[in-house]
Design a protein that fits this description.
The chain is 56% helix and 11% strand. The chain has 242 residues and is mainly alpha-helical.
Length: 242
């Protein structure tokens, strides 16, 4: 059974409250328990939806002048938030747009290099065959020289492509290692937040105001000073340019 919970917005609460008199006993207890909090289990909403489309549920809803279409799964989940009280794990770092563009560019370069190498091999072989025409050598000798020239060209092109490919793979591995370090850093911070039981504020968030004193927050070329004179006094917020 899933432990996922969703938020309980006002419209969902209004839809569930009339059902407390007509739901089966076990399902009723789950709904009543949810109505006394700010969350409801996803499985409970699924069970309510299934019950609404049974013959028993349809009859009970008709007597209460309720539309069973208001209790399908999509209608019940509309406007809810999954796991509002949980600290969700951070998403894995994704490649930057420029990295994706660079990868596509490198792929096109690799294809172009392979095509160029193929034409180079064929071109060199044909050039050797044509140049050896005036030497008086036999056709077998000319064919052998053409094949040898093509092989030498192929080895050279293969070496150049290997150097390019290895360099590309090292760059790719470096970016992947960097993303892996970032993922581990986020996971470590996530585990710390779970142990603390509180959600740490983002680094870019303005420090919260306290009852006394003031705090400064740097925002680029501006300095924001947040000053609180007293708990019951008005808060003066002024922004001065550095």
């Amino acid at each position: 059974m899933s432990s996922l919970k969703v938020s309980l917005p006002p419209h969902l609460r209004e839809a569930l409250e009339p059902l407390t008199d007509i739901l089966p006993l076990e399902l009723k207890s789950l709904v009543v328990e949810a109505l006394n909090s700010t969350e409801i289990k996803y499985d409970t909403l699924v069970d309510v939806s299934k019950w609404a489309f049974t013959e028993e549920g349809e009859t009970a809803l008709t007597k209460k002048k309720l539309n069973r279409r208001d209790y399908d799964r999509l209608s019940l989940l509309a406007g809810t938030i999954a796991g509002p009280s949980k600290i969700l794990p951070p998403p894995d770092p994704k490649p930057e747009p420029w990295e994706i563009a660079q990868e596509e560019k490198n792929t096109r370069r690799a294809i172009a290099a392979l095509v160029n190498g193929l034409f180079s091999v064929v071109g060199i072989a044909a050039a050797v065959w044509w140049a050896s025409k005036t030497t008086g050598w036999s056709d077998e000798m000319r064919i052998g020289l053409s094949v040898l020239g093509g092989l030498v060209t192929a080895v050279a092109e293969g070496g150049l492509f290997s150097i390019y490919y290895n360099r590309r793979e090292r760059q790719k591995e470096y970016r992947e290692n960097r993303r892996e370090k970032e993922r581990k850093r986020l996971q470590a911070r996530y585990r710390k937040r779970l142990q603390d039981g509180t959600a740490a504020a983002p680094e870019s968030e303005i420090p919260p105001m306290t009852a006394e004193g003031s705090k400064e927050h740097e925002t680029g070329p501006f300095k924001r000073r947040i000053t609180t004179v007293d708990k019951d006094a008005d808060t003066d917020i002024s922004t001065d340019e550095d």
